[in-house]
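Example: DUF465 domain-containing protein.
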Amino acid sequence: MRRLELLRVEHRDLDSAIAVLMEAGAGDQMQIARFKKRKLRLRDEIAQLEDALVPDIIA
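Written out as structure tokens, the predicted fold is:
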């Protein structure tokens, strides 16, 4: 659970950092692209952890 919360916090932080860089207009496009890729990897890892927490329902 702790790992999941840390990933969510990092994901929100990256979202904020990307927004600030884009608003400032001074953002390095390569840096923004790296942040976006990291954010996508975090989203995937968060989804995997959430799936592991929810038990499979047998229909």
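Helices lie at 2-24, 29-53.
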